[in-house]
Write a structure and sequence with these properties.
By secondary structure, the protein is of the alpha/beta class. About 35% of the residues lie in helices and about 15% in strands.
């Protein structure tokens, strides 16, 4: 915008407005009730942490109450910028927050590179949700594969 002759102040304001518009629409959806039930059940048994390369607002989509912490790529943890998965930053922050060793953390994700490779490189256990057909393919095997995220209920018994 500056190259088009718009002042720095106006360009900054327009950019902030565009990002706010994007963020609003990025989190403008309703999470299905069965996912709320699943997260509530899991959160009763274990502390849950959200680790995301994305920018969905867990408060806006009404999921924040299930997580003891949320880490986003580009966000801050211990005064440092979180790098995108598969870098271990957010996994390490989650383990530190929970006061556990990486091998005690099960990371559930749908991307073969960001989630599965990232979790394994950080020393965590991984569960790949294969039904979403998103992200990059597996380059390393997960500890378990879930064809449906609701298969996590089996761990509650």
């Amino acid at each position: 915008m500056i190259a088009l002759g718009i002042s720095k102040t106006q360009a900054r304001q327009a950019a902030q407005k565009a990002v706010a518009h994007f963020n609003f629409h990025r989190s403008n959806f309703t999470v299905p009730e069965h996912i709320h039930r699943l997260l509530a059940a899991l959160a009763k048994k274990w502390p849950l942490i959200a680790i995301s390369n994305g920018n969905v607002n867990t408060e806006t989509i009404k999921l924040k109450q299930y997580f003891s912490a949320t880490y986003h790529a580009g966000g801050q943890s211990a005064g440092k910028l979180n790098k995108h998965k598969p870098c271990p930053d957010m996994f390490n922050s989650a383990c530190k927050h929970l006061k556990i060793k990486p091998e005690e953390l099960l990371h559930v994700g749908d991307c073969g590179k960001a989630d599965i490779l990232g979790g394994i490189l950080a020393g965590c256990q991984t569960a790949w949700v294969s039904s979403y057909d998103v992200g990059q393919p597996l380059s390393i095997l997960p500890n378990i594969e879930l064809s449906d995220v609701e298969e996590l209920y089996q761990f509650l018994t």
